[in-house]
């Protein structure tokens, strides 16, 4: 196998895959109530108006606006109350000149009314008479028919990640089913003779497999379906057999470990056997995570992640996550705004690579501070004890205590 290790920036590794992905997506109908964080596969069109009737936006009185013109506290308009329109019922009250009807928030207006006087702008004279102390204009305090949504409006675009308010919007329009992109299946394969299952007690020289489950949790956060395969030893035929089975049934394939330059590295050979063009990138200019493999076969993305858990998570967030979002039907990854914090300690860096450092957030005198959590990339608790990651760009020599830094929180979409 020819070894190649010319590193590229994480964004370039993503770009290499983007232009080669098979973007043919499969859709499925699901109940709108279960659609949170799913991605629409088609436009969602309104089949009715919202509201379907004119509604009062507050408690008060339905009136004809012209009957209140010129009203003031010193010279109020005197109106006769001829009834009320209970919330949830159709109006059976009609107004004539100088008349009003009790109105409730969300309820219909009396027939002939074109405005609502809020109750705070009225005084009760007797049970059938009120004084209006302030004029209203036509349409004031009224939600008009189709003011929110018109018939035939596009209420959700395609390739849209559904939010909680979107669920409410669809249900308000009676849209109880929505077409979404089928969740992509992400196969995860951990390799190494030293690995044992988490429920086993490791013997000397063995370690529990945590990458499969950490990566699977990250995949779930992306809205995809993780599929973990059995641990595979450092044997080419065994790895190839599992990889082919996983590749045939998944939309994305992730190998954990086996991406170093050691003589035992078989990941590139395995990935190249899955189809053209195979491995495209071996080496990303970041720390941790440099020995990463990125490839594609038959339009499906392939990844070889480093075995160290911190490295694997960093690479996943920078390179794998945006690709999973694309095969999930999104055109761009969801926006997950970083937080700004003051760095509590100097952090050196080496020009020519991106450094990603776990940080713990805390407040001092009301100021949000970021404390670096230093540790080797094979120590999972450097991540457990952190709240997010701080990046130092390639052309930067480090960060000084007291500088404001950007922190990318763990658990983003």
Can I get a quick summary?
The chain has four domains: 10-26 and 183-327, MoaB/Mog-like domain (Molybdenum Cofactor Biosythetic Enzyme, Chain A, 3-Layer(aba) Sandwich), CATH 3.40.980.10; 28-49 and 151-181, Molybdopterin biosynthesis moea protein, domain 2 (Alpha-Beta Complex); 55-143, Molybdopterin biosynthesis moeA protein, domain 3, CATH 2.170.190; 339-409, Beta-clip. Helices cover 17% and strands 30% of the residues.
Cα separation of the termini: 37 Å
Largest sheet: 6 strands, mixed
Overall pLDDT metric: 93
Percentage of helical residues? 10-25%
User: What is the strand tally?
Assistant: 28
* CATH-scheme architecture of the largest domain: 3-Layer(aba) Sandwich
CATH class of the largest domain: Alpha Beta
Which descriptor suits the 3D outline?
A: elongated
CATH superfamily of the largest domain: MoaB/Mog-like domain
Q: What are the low-pLDDT stretches, counting only 5+ consecutive residues below 50?
A: none
Give a verbal description of the structure.
This protein has about 425 residues and is α/β, with parallel strands linked by helices. It has 4 domains: about 10-25 and about 185-325, MoaB/Mog-like domain (Molybdenum Cofactor Biosythetic Enzyme, Chain A, 3-Layer(aba) Sandwich); about 30-50 and about 150-180, Alpha-Beta Complex (Molybdopterin biosynthesis moea protein, domain 2); about 55-145, Molybdopterin biosynthesis moeA protein, domain 3 (Beta Complex), CATH 2.170.190; about 340-410, MoeA, C-terminal, domain IV (Beta-clip), CATH 2.40.340. About 15% of the residues lie in helices and about 30% in strands. The chain contains 7 helices and 28 strands. The protein has a 6-stranded mixed beta sheet, with no helix packed on it. The protein has a 6-stranded mixed beta sheet with strand order 16-13-17-21-20-18, with helices on both faces. A 5-stranded mixed β-barrel has the order 22-25-24-26-28. α1 runs parallel beside α6 (about 310-325). The radius of gyration is 31 Å and the shape is elongated. The model has no long low-confidence stretch (mean pLDDT about 95).
